[in-house]
Specification:
This protein has two domains: 3-236, Spore Coat Polysaccharide Biosynthesis Protein SpsA, Chain A (Alpha-Beta Complex), CATH 3.90.550.10; 240-435, Glycoside hydrolase/deacetylase (TIM Barrel, Alpha-Beta Barrel), CATH 3.20.20.370. Helix 13 links the parallel strand 13 and strand 14 (388-390). 43% of the residues are buried. The strands form three sheets. A seven-stranded mixed beta sheet has the order 3-2-1-4-7-5-8, with helices on both faces. The chain has helices at residues 16-30, 48-58, 72-82, 98-107, 129-145, 163-171, 179-189, 211-231, 250-261, 277-284, 323-331, 337-353, 373-380, 392-397, 403-420, and strands at 3-9, 35-42, 62-67, 87-90, 113-117, 124-125, 157-160, 194-198, 200-201, 240-246, 267-270, 291-296, 360-363, 388-390, 429-430, 432-435. It starts with a strand and ends in an 11-residue tail after the last strand. It is elongated, with a radius of gyration of 24 Å. The chain is an alpha/beta fold. Helices cover 41% and strands 16% of the residues.
Amino acid sequence: MLFSFIFPVYNEEVHLKNQIEKFIQFVNQKYKNKFEIILVENGSKDKSWSLVKDLEKKFSFVKAYKLPYPSYGRALRKGLSVSLGKKIFFFNVDYFSFDFIEKADKLLNTVDIVIGSKTLANSDDGRSFFRKSITYFFNVFLRLILNYPGTDTHGIKAFKKTKTLIKFAEICHTDNELFDTELILRLTRHGAIFVDLPQKTTELRKSRYSVMRRIKSTFYDLVLIIKAKYFFGNNFFPLVVDADDFGMSEEVNKKILTEIEAGNLDIVSIMPNLVKPKDLNNLKNYFGKIDYSMHFNLLRGKPCEKDNKVQSLINRRGNFYPLPIFVFRLFFGMIPLDEVKLEFLAQYRKLAKAGIYPKYLNSEQHIHILSPINRLLEKEIDKTSIKKIRSLGSSFSSLKRKPLRKFCLVFFKKIFDFKFNKFSDFKNRYDARIVHPGLKLVYKKI
């Protein structure tokens, strides 16, 4: 697949069908069988989703996705995450350019980003004076405060698909109007080469958002970008990408292997008690391309150690207890740490016997952050090939879009720290962007 064209869709009922079919007529004639069109509907209150589904049924190269609420940034992020093209374009239903596609196609052979600029001298901006003024002052702000070297960030653009692009898209803090702005800022600060192209811009329709709503969401996103850049500078660059749950299911395994092939992963975390020998053999084929992590699991499936040696960890059917019961039993001393140790070593031995020697360690549902398990693991990894354990901060940040689960994790850690003494973090730790390929989470294809 050569091209992926991503269109966020929000309340586009009036123009959607005509605009997309016009777009299809051009690209199908020019790039037949070399492209896909990704339509991400997000929280529309009109018939946009119905029209998107109609287009998907009519054209095999159209892919339809739905988000539950309006979010320009999440729509673009979703489109990126499912895209298969080597060259990725961000367009709007009311604004795209065939001339831009042809020029960007050639430029992306030598650069990383091509941006359609509304503010270059040769550009023709047909929008209202008010909207042009906002764009001008916003771009001045980007140059003065955020040191952006370009002339525009918010318009049509094209990217060469790289591992860095996928990483940055995952760690961007913004979800609203400035997602693409933050993405470009991160990429250019990381050394990505970009080119600005002059564009002719006209208004097909008025903005679907009120002025106050746009100002509010833009201000909020700017605060997030400034906070990330100036107060948490280390996090402005991508962390390693760690895919959890290899061994959970065939679907998860297949998706993780696909992501490895695409070069989007640095680490794969393996669930020793669930993974099958054939899947371990498949994973071994990628040795050198990714690193292995042991996903220590005491919450799903059956143990690797003999049942009679880990009786406190399993129920009558020989299965691990779910998280709430496990936490209760651990807190009240119903689980001897010797049994946790035996199961940890048994899970490690299974991987080592298969010829996989993990460098990293993490756990199912982040139970490795709970005292006294964290101290036990920090001691026991000395007997293995494991060098680093996933940091507490990495575990917490992975749940930033799941506030209830994050609250529960923080609560459990606090009460365990109170009883078993506070544990700050691991001496040998690693930070990672945690992803779960293959799992059907908030974003799902309908």
